[in-house]
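Model the whole thing, not chain by chain.
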Amino acid sequence: MKKPVMYLSSSLFGKLLPRSKRYLSTKEAIERRSHLFNLEKKRQLENVGRIEKIEVNYKGVPKDCTLVMNRNISTPYDCAKHLTQWHTESSVLALLDGTIHWDMHRPLTENCTLELQNFTVSDPHQVNKAFWRSCSLVLGACATVAFKDTVAVKLHSFPGPDIRSGSFIYDIDLPSLPDWKPTQQELHTLSAEYVMLSRKALPIERLEVSEELALEMFVENEHKTKQIPSIARSNANGKVTLYKVDKYVDISKGPMISHTAQIGKVSVTSVHQLVGTPESDVNQLYRFQGVALPTGVVLNHFAYSILIERAKKLNPARSPINPFGEPSHTTHKENIAATA
Amino acid sequence: MNQAEVTKLVSKLRIKIPPKHRKMSSPEGPEGRMNKLRKTVTGLFKYERIELNHNRADEARQYAERLIAEAINHGDCHKPTMEMADYWLLEKELVHKLFKVLVPRYENSNTAYTRMLRAPRPEYSYNTEKTVLELRGNPYPPLHNKQANNRQLLQNILLDAAKYEYRQTKYAEMAENIGKNEQEKPSV
Amino acid sequence: MSLAIRKCSSDLLSITKWVVRREYRLLSTLPENIEPANTDVDEKAPRTGRRPRLQNPVLEYRHIYPEFLPDPNPKWRNSLREKLERADMLKRRAKIDIPEFYVGSILAVTVSDPHAQGKTNRFVGICIDRKGCGLRAQFILRNVVDHQGVEVRYDLYDPIIQSIQVLRLEKRLDDELFYLRDALPEYSTFPFDMDPEVLPDGTPVPINDVQVKLKPRPWLERWERQELKGVSNIEEHLKEKDRKRRELRKEPWEKYDLMKQYRRTIPIEEQSEIWGEVYNQLQQMHVSRRKVARKRVLATPKPQLG
């Protein structure tokens, strides 16, 4: 697949790049973050120590049953593997004790009852939210991979999922591209990149890390570095929740869907420029927008074209650098990031 | 043109009835056909959900529907109906099931008593359509998950929001037009 | 003549016929007593715990006016044509009195005939068959005239028919009486000057359980295979070969073929619609004709006195 052609002369690149002491290219940063994520995950697994058993009461088709699983190791996904392949493929979220929505790849901590939810449950509100959130997450990963090495891509944040707005979004800082308007070809390429990523059927892994480690992982991304302390403070245990798709790590509160193959029809529809207020530290951001449907949903092409047309308009979600056009407010900004 | 028979009264079936019966090849001729169908009807009443070839399922379904309709119409004190049930149900405990379980179940229903769904065909098989035939209200989990009308589904939320937005823009346009007309009128 | 004897037939009747008779008691009082019949059904309902279904009294019209029901073959169904035909039939029935009659009843039919003396032709005979639906409904009358069997087929709604008179209203044990063609001639001989027999109001239609004697073979049809009730001496004329073949040809499963029955009948729901459409007019005609008939009965004695 052809990558977007975004040439910039090296001299210009050098001038526009913000001066930072430790310079990492986007690719290197991704590798490093992924490596740190894996190390931390391994460490946390080793820390579990003696394996204790918990009883998970599964409720649903084909029949209710009790599974004996490992505390802090087994995930709802492992439980689904004991049932059928259909369960592993179609389950989006786990519902613990009828109240808590739990990621499919998050280890279980206690005895509980387990229900697996897919997109067609009778009340799919939380499932839809998780889907929309995951779409934003994958959009960030997709934008990171789509640009050439010469273009610095700094993910800023994405707001909480609002399906009625018609599009999922990710606000991204492209410091080396001050005035970029994507052509139709480039949007197609972005969509293709998205589809390629979703077809890989990669699991969306979850990890809770300490604030220091999170800062270390996002050291080259000044936006995330600023958001991390407030996110850690808003969490009860002072930790930061990270999600990893393929090798792209991002911060989000979750929960997320089980794997990327659950994203079916998808298109990246538009990229809008957000201009900041004079006081804000970022001059401008690009708002990437897209629309997606879960796998297995059959929608008439005309109806889908309506959704695409609507998703092309600028999403009315609050701009992190210019909320309501008022002077930027630091607490506001942190809150947005924290809800993501 | 022939005349309709008037000695018997039947209630209308709620399923599609083909104009002619199927012959169902059998060396015993029409009697063999009936015996085949009796086996299927008995199986359906016994297990409440069976998987079989489409032709036979569709044919047996009509007889099962008729049998239930007769049982509902005449009850268990009607001798001809009892004989009919005795003929069609090869296992005699199913006669009790028909009158004591199925009749109360379907007495007030407004739909067909059975449901027929297409089943997946095994990959390397004869070119026969497989079908699942079941009695409605059976204790098994449902086979289909038709929830296209659930407004909470993601696609429905998206389409509803798009519809709402479209209407809002139209209302705004109308309001503008009204304002314009009022402005024009005094000038004229 | 054995036909002249009319016995009380309660002993020989099968269960089904008994049911039919009961229906007729209800039927003959139909015009006045529809509502009482209905309440009677409602009283029964809680006792049995079953929903009363086929108790719509209007449905009993199917025996009196079978030609109002369309052909059940879906190939020939056309709701618009059927409706138009019903309207035409009612128009014709408003012109002449087409009385209630059954296979086995003795009828006198007067038709216009340009070649006959007095331009009319009257024929008396026993109805041996009644078939067809809509405007094509027809019946066959049979009689023996001068030792020669005569059969005339009339269309029920034929415009040349001037009057149809029922001389004796009764039924036989079979639905078709074609076997009279092979029976001894006395069974189908009726005098042309027969007087009409009037049944008192409210009596059920009697069933004549006479069993005819067949002539020796050859026959027109294989009567032995048709399970006829109205023939007494069929076994006398059979050879061993015929009996064997009759056994081979039997289809005992046919009466259990629920779908065969279904494809031959018009379901209750459709019938209710049809009868609901024609009920009022048929009812009015019936009542007005009865009034006229009563007056005539009262009026006839007077000239004799004078």
